């Protein structure tokens, strides 16, 4: 969401905001099945349940993203939160870290399999992970063979 949309949602009164939340939860996902279970004789179960009131005051937080200028140097590789930090509310930090660990383990395994020095990186190329949101700066590292 861009800052303008965030400001619009923050400026809404509670009723408008509840309506916007319900619209977001129930918009564009196709028909929802009605459950056979009933909450009472007169009420059927709805998926998703409707929001009727806010439980607390609303707040807006700018999401941040930081990453190291260099992920790799001679005999050093940064992965996970050491390489890049994503705001916890974005919910992707651990996934990026797992992707980094997977890629680095594959690169190390390939280097060990052919007997290269796994600590050497030709031309100081950047570590390019499959999960990197920043794109690649250069090629995937190539371990030197000498």
Automatic annotation (TrEMBL):
InterPro entries associated with the record: FAD-bd, FAD/NAD-bd_sf, Ubi_Hdrlase_CS, UbiH/COQ6_monooxygenase
Source taxonomy: Eukaryota, Viridiplantae, Streptophyta, Embryophyta, Tracheophyta
Molecular function via GO: FAD binding
One GO cellular component, as annotated: mitochondrion
PROSITE patterns, per the entry: UBIH
Transmembrane segments: none
Domain FAD-binding as annotated: residue spans: 55-109
Source domain of life: Eukaryota
Native source organism of the sequence: Linum tenue
UniProt name for this protein: FAD-binding domain-containing protein
One Pfam family from the record: FAD_binding_3
GO biological process: carotene biosynthetic process; xanthophyll biosynthetic process
